[in-house]
Amino acid sequence: MKGKKAVLAVGFAAVLLGAFVAAHLFAEGDEAEFIGSKKCRKCHFKVYRDWAKRGHAKAFEPLKPEDMDKVCDKTKKKCVACHVTGYGKPGGFSDPEKDKHLAEVGCEACHGPGSLHADMSPRDLREIKKKGGDLKIKMADPEACVYCHNPHINFKELYGE
């Protein structure tokens, strides 16, 4: 009798675990997560290579911790937000040690979190693109540029540089 109960308990636990895993895997409304530009490189190598040579790839470098308090003082959040990817957003940059992969103005700064897009196979992406479907990534919005590249702010005057 104890053996049957144990088998039933294990079977029941397996069914519950399977239901939990299936519900998690197939939940609607999954949110994309920030993954960093290096993950984009495997499929978008030429674009990544070009980006890596430009200022956005090195945008965090001027924000050395010892300089941040002098330069950013009251506007620290605004200052950091323009030098990293996803600051202030769930899963975005929050800590220089923990989030080194987001310490840049990377692909996801313009295109949004890329995990759902990166998880799709190249074949699936080609088929979806042909059909005009959802590639699970947003197209870059020029309005996003204005948040940091604001022609109405004189950064030299503001920060004394």
Q: Strands, helices and their partners?
A:
Elements: H1 2-25, H2 37-41, H3 45-52, H4 65-72, H5 76-81, H6 107-111, H7 115-118, H8 122-130, H9 142-148, H10 155-159
So, the CATH homologous superfamily of the largest domain?
Flavocytochrome C3, Chain A
Portion in helices: 40-55%
Instruction: Determine Rg (CA atoms, Å).
Output: 22 Å
Number of domains: 2
**Secondary structure tally, helices:** 10
Tally of extended strands?
0
Mean pLDDT: 77
Based on Cα principal axes, name the global outline: globular
CATH class of the largest domain: Mainly Alpha
3D architecture notes:
With 161 residues, the chain is mainly α. The chain folds into 2 domains: 30 residues; 129 residues, Flavocytochrome C3, Chain A (Flavocytochrome C3, Chain A, domain 2). Helices cover 50% and strands 0% of the residues. The chain is built from 10 helices and no strands. It is globular, with a radius of gyration of 22 Å.
Quick recap:
This protein has 161 residues and is an all-alpha fold. It folds into two domains: 30 residues; 129 residues, Flavocytochrome C3, Chain A, domain 2 (Orthogonal Bundle).
Q: Which terms summarize this structure?
A:
161 residues, mainly alpha, Flavocytochrome C3, Chain A, domain 2, 2 domains
